[in-house]
Fold this sequence. Notes:
Layout: E1 6-9, H1 22-38, H2 42-56, H3 59-67, H4 71-78, H5 90-97, E2 102-106, H6 111-120, E3 129-131, H7 144-154, E4 161-165, H8 172-176, E5 180-183, E6 202-203, H9 207-218
Parallel strand pairs: 1-2, 1-4, 2-3, 4-5, 5-6
Amino acid sequence: MQKLKYWVFDLDNTLYPSHADLFSQVDYKMGVFIEKMFDISYVDAKKRQKYFFQKHGTTLRGLMTEHGIEPQEYLNFVHDIDFSVLEPDEELNKAISSLPGKKFIYTNASTSYAKVVLSNIGLSGQFDGYFDIHDAEFLPKPDKRSYHKMIEKFAIDPKTSVMIEDIAGNLNPAAELGMTTVWVPTNTHWSQTDHNEDNVHHVAPSLSTWLKNFTSVAE
Length: 219
């Protein structure tokens, strides 16, 4: 393995524990958005949301593709949540700050949302760049086109890069492009989605412990 120079981190349920459950708040707001947009019951809105997600990969992409919505209004609405459930993990933050090379955030959310999350977990200023859903032209992970755009934006060499994710399936394109992959499994039902052992090079139940051990061996 060549010396690793670039660290690409997912955000949600990767840099903070899944039990903080920000997604349940976002998921509820997605249902409310659809409920109001179509003037239907919340129950029917959640059914429609599930359809959009299954067909298009994200609810937003479904709404954009089939109904031409303006994405920023949607993102502002669903990301207006309570972030006070988050708190810093000092061990993880120390491990991240000690990493050699450049560090990036790669998220299906927006950069503004990512910055609020990072502020609440004590990681503001730790990353060299952000690749968000706007940069991806609303092609969410694990769409391989998004990964190519991310690599181009950050000007990184996949063979000297690490990608860290809580959803196993999102590591498949990264591994196929030559990146070293790290899976942070959680107790959420989607963490195992499209798990392919060949594309998961490392498993890190505790990301802070894994980062400390990995960097100490690499030195």
